[in-house]
Amino acid sequence: MVPADRYILAIEDSAVQAKRLEFFFKKNNIDYKICANAQEALLTIEQSLPILIISDIIMPGMDGYELCSIIKKDDRTKDIPVILLTSLQDPNDIIRGLQAGANNFITKPYDQNYLLSRIKILLDNRDQPDCDDIIKLNYRGETFSIASGKKQILDLLISVYDTAIQRNEELISIKNQLEQSNKELLVANENLDAFTRTVSHDLKSPLSVIIGFASAIKDNPNTTISSDEQEFITHILDSANEMNQLIKDLLTFAKSSTQQINKIDIDISRLSKEISDTISREYSNKKYIIDIEPNLKTIADEVLIKVVLTNLLGNAYKYSSKRENPKISIGSKEYYGKTLIYIKDNGNGFDSQKAQNLFQPFNRFHTDKEFSGTGVGLSTVKRIIDRHNGEIWIESQIDVGTTVYFMI
Hints:
Elements: E1 8-11, H1 15-27, E2 32-35, H2 38-47, E3 52-56, H3 64-73, E4 82-86, H4 91-100, E5 104-107, H5 112-124, E6 135-139, E7 142-146, H6 150-219, H7 227-255, E8 263-267, H8 268-280, E9 289-292, E10 297-301, H9 302-319, E11 327-335, E12 338-345, H10 377-387, E13 391-397, E14 401-407
């Protein structure tokens, strides 16, 4: 579809959306370049011409319309098809797209198969001649001059019409689902409050009694119980402690969606060291190499960010604990114009290609015999990052290790 010596240029300022486009290009064996803003894209175009351009509209600095207009006014680049990614919530979007000379609109979130089909259609038709007559358009009391050719206008309007039909069908379905979900949500919230109260009192209180008495029996120097009975007591204690941890994790998960956020300047480096020092006491039999980049800063709720770091560092310690020379790194990197914080370990890892539901509660990739856990920690982390309007993802390889990237 794309000649071997050509590439598609994408401009996207969201790190997660850029990652999604990167996956899309690799999956379809398309050569690509991704830029974080319009200025960077223009420099890239100057160095080598792409065969097609995909641009977000809302970007810092120059927006997608202005970028498209510059491309279409340049004799070297005017014939390169441009696809604009948009929410398409305002009819003026279409007018501005026509003025800028865009070839296609694709709405977010987009279907990858639909995006692939639009790319194929534009590339298949790119050599067809077009008309350059200026069209005057009166709309809402304003007069617009449209320089786009008839074929270009037709391509764009067909893409908008396709999107409108698709969105209308989705809206009907969503409306029905929303009405049902609202009813269920009211019941779920009432149940969640009741559940939280039950967990915090009715379950934790008797569990503490079980742990207390079982520990007293086990640790009693004058006990007359047999070795088999000692082993039974140990199993009771282990199971009770696991249940106690699950209750704590569930309470943290429930509170993470309702706790008020108070954003302040946070020293991630200092906080990571404090949490790491605490966790390391549980693994005193291992010599960990801990590398923390200095002066890592962010703005977030300190209580909630402690929950994030405690979960992520706890996982890093746990899953690298069976390595001969376990190593954990906390640092930052630039990614498509954004600063990411990462926590990296050289632990067991997992197949990240199968990790679609990684942030769902109780979803785990290791058995309790391999590594203990409740499967709630990452769900809590994701919820906290989302509440900060941040982004998070995980890259991992079996027997190589895991890296968690996040920004807030």
